[in-house]
Structure formats: structure tokens, C-alpha cells
Amino acid sequence: MGVGFVDSHLHLDLSLFDEDRDSVVSRARQANVVAMLNPGHNLESSRKAIQLAERYAELYAAVGVHPHDAAAEEPRGEEAIRELARHPRVVAIGEIGLDYYRNLSPPETQRRVFLKYLRLARRLNLPVIVHCRDAFEDVCGMLEEVQAGTPALQEEKTQALRGVLHSFSGDESSAFRLLDIGFFISFSGQITYPKSDSLRSVARELPIEKVLIETDSPFLPPQPRPGRGKRNEPSFVSHVAEELARVKGLSVEDVARITTGNVRRLFGIGPEIEAGQIAYRIRNSLYLNITNECTNACVFCRRQTNPVVKGHDLRLDREPTFEEIVAAIGEHHGYDEIVFCGYGEPLLRLEVVKQVAQFLRGKANAGETPALLRINTNGLANLVHGRNIVPELIPLVRNFSVSLNAPSAEEYHRLCRSRYGDLAYEEVKRFIRECREGGASVIATVVAVPGLDLEACRKVAEEELGATLRVREYDEVG
Ligand code: SF4
Ligand SMILES: [Zn+2]
User: Fold this and answer.
1) Confidence label for 272 from pLDDT (cuts 50, 70 and 90)
2) Which of 1, 206, 277, 435 is least crowded, fewest Cβ atoms below 10 Å from its Cβ?
3) How far, in Å, from the CA of 447 to the mean position of ligand 1?
4) Does 58 have pLDDT greater than 60?
5) Residue 357 and residue 248 share a domain
6) From CA 34, how far away is CA 194, in angstroms rounded?
């Protein structure tokens, strides 16, 4: 497997690991865990987390005071935590939060300490790791309050508050409220328990780009290993990833790559996301990133802002040659589908697309299992090339996804802002017809932009053009 897992929350500093900490870490390495984050629960544990982070290359520390420990906080606790936060292995403030389930500290004290550390995190521009049990309203209210900022914080021009709610076990509306605040959501072994159906359905609804995985070791052991009641350890984080993959209809490798990329975005740790991916895999399909150029500037496109798809960074610093594309495809075979896609319009590079398609068909003729070839296009290539190119493509590729995006020319113009202005929409429809008449199978896609009349789009696609309609989630490619 390519990228490894990150266990974004564990307590390796606890004495339960005193006997065999080195073996626990080496088992994690063997299980492809490439980074781990150990938050402290009080001053002492924060110090210990840092010491361990100095010892193990994959381990990073966060420093903070857990709600259980809030009442026992040392008199100059905040100063000491602030000092520890300067250590280079410290990447967050945590574990902080509210726990009204066990109420080991009085709620009032918990709130005071939580607020203090949220403010500190904003001042230090560090993300926070938040614990929440039976206290969702207060946790969210306080995050929103600190996010909005006090006049003092605004004056200091602090960055927005960032963070994660760890071992999430709430409902869907709570999850989306956290996303609105700009938070990530982390799932632990709880998601593997037979009784966690509602948690799994929350995970199904959340954009995976906002999800982290963790073990919370030594707590919350996943099923089937090591089983409930046993000590959990970071090597078991793959079970969380497996469950999430099942729920989201992705591969475990997809989940690892995406969640590891998310950790990188939030905490700045773990492997860097490699930019300029030419061939990238999602589930069992291979996507080819031919160009970042396009004739359109769709309102929903992230081509120029953040061209990251399922953890693959598609920003190209130059367009790949035929040879580079072939090299990127490599020796792998057995894909369900190979798709000319990426952030950009592949048919701007018609000759390269034809060459690559020819090459892939040649491989199929040489006895390799043929993958289905598909071109994802905005359907404007005939205007670009000044001729009907469909007859040149049909012998090579028989599957097309064409972005219809609207039920009328006006709506198309508003959403897609094409360089071809008023000509564009009719041209997209003509392209779909040409492909259909050439015997290709065509999917007309629309992005579910709020307010778009999907039923009207379906009519145009199916009744007028004889294509199948596919509605893409706002913000999803692949
Ligand atoms: S047609 Fe596709 S690549 Fe081009 S701007 Fe629109 S969404 Fe982006
Ligand atoms: Zn914890």
C-alpha cells in the first residue's frame, strides 16, 4: 500500500504502556502507521508526551488539560502549557473539552479551563483536539464563541480556530455543525461496534475530506481485534479505516491516503501530499490527469483553488507528455476503468488522448484484460478544434461522461462561464448527440448546485438526448 495510516489520537504516555512501549511502536510501524499524535491530559502527561515524541520519530505531541483534570490544574498551569507548546514536536493544544457524563471536575471549572485553552490555541495559531461527552451544546457554543473572537483576539489578528472533535459519537446535525465551525471529525474504534449503526450513517454522510481516524489507545479497542475490554494500540487503526472504507464505498487505500492528507492539512504532520499526480487511483479505477487548462470556469470547480481529489493533488506545473502518462500508468492492470479526467478538459489535448487510448487498446490486444476506457469532458472540444472530433474518438473510446450541468443555455452560462459564451450549451448537447449517434454510451452529468432543477436536467439528458443522467455531489470528482 502507498501512503500509510495516521493514528491521530492515542495516549502512549499512560502507564499501561510502560512494560512494552517499544514493541507497541514497532508493531505500529509494521502495520504501516506513519505518524501518531499523543495529546496530554494534564501538565505531567503533556511533558511525558513530549519526551516520547522526542524518542519515537513517528510520534508527535499535543499539550493541554483534559476536562477530567480541570479541577486539579496547577496554579500556573496555563503558563507552563504555553511554554511546552513552543517545543518543536508539539503540534496542537489538547486534549481539552467538556465531559458532563463523568463530571470528574465541576462543569463550571471545565468550561473555564476549556475556554482558556481555546483562546490560547488561537493566540498560538495551533489547532485544538477536543473531547466532548454529553456536552455538545456547550462545546459547540464555546467553539463558535471563540471562533467569532473577542475584541482582544481580533485586535491581535489571530488566525481562525482549527481543530478536531476526537472519537466523535454524536448525531448528524452535530457533525455538520462542527464542519460549519471549520472542524474535522475523528472516528475511533467505536465505529466498528455492532451497535454503532447510527454513527456509521453519520460517517456515510460526512465528506471524507473532513474525517480523521484514531485509536484513542489504550481505550476503545476496535472489533474484531483486539476485541472489547482489551488494551487498544495504534497498530489497530487499520480496523477503523476498514470500517470507514466499507461505509463510504472506498478502498482502504483511499481512506488511508485521504485521512492522512487531512492530518497533514490540520496538524502539518505525516507525509506531504505529492503534487502533480498524472495517474491516480480511486477505488479500482485509474484516472488520468491530462491538463489543468479548460475552456470554462465553472463556479463549482476547484481547478484553480484547490485541485485535490480524494487525497490526490492534481495541480500540474506543466502538462505531461505521452511518455510520462504511459510511465505513470505503469505496469498495473486489472482496473475496472481507466478514465481521462483530472481538473481540466482532457480533449484540449486531443492528440495525446488519442495516443494514450491507442496505447491502452494495444495492451488489451496483447492479451491484457482490457479496462473500460472513458473520457470525462465538458463537450466543447469541437469548438476548440474547429471540426467534429467524435469520429476520431469513437474507434478508441466508447464511453463518455459529458458535463451537461444545466437545463438551459442561461443556466449553463451562469454556472459554467464558458469562453464560448452563448454558443456553449447547444454545443454540449450537439456533442452528446454525436457520441450517441456514433454508438457510444453517454452519461450526462450535472453538479448538484443548490437550487438547480435536477428534474429539468434529467428531461434534457434522457428525453432529448438519449443519455443517462448522473448527478454529482457538489464538490466531488471521481
Ligand atoms: S468544465 Fe470541468 S474542469 Fe472545466 S471549469 Fe468546469 S468543472 Fe472545471
Ligand atoms: Zn483522548
Assistant:
1) confident
2) 1
3) 11
4) yes
5) no
6) 28
User: Of all atoms in ligand 1, which is nearest to the CA of residue 345?
Assistant: 3
Q: Of 223, 240, 267, which residue sits at a domain end?
A: 267
Ligand 1 cavity residues, CB under 6 Å: 294, 296-298, 301, 303, 343-345, 378, 403, 416
272 is a domain residue: no
What's the 477 CA to ligand 1 centre distance in angstroms?
A: 11
| Model confidence pLDDT, tens digit, residues 378-403 | 999 999 999 999 999 999 999 999 99
417 Cα: distance to centroid of ligand 1 (angstroms): 10
pLDDT for 155 equals 61
Residue 274 resides in a domain: no
**Based on the structure, what is the number of domains in the chain?**
2
Pair 335, 241 in one domain: no
Q: Is 356 exposed, middle or buried (0-12, 13-18, 19+ CB in 10 A)?
A: buried
List the residue whose alpha carbon is closest to atom 6 of ligand 1.
298
**Going by C-beta distance under 8 Å and a sequence separation of 6 or more, which residues neighbour residue 74?**
43, 80
Q: How far apart are CA 171 and CA 157, in angstroms?
A: 34
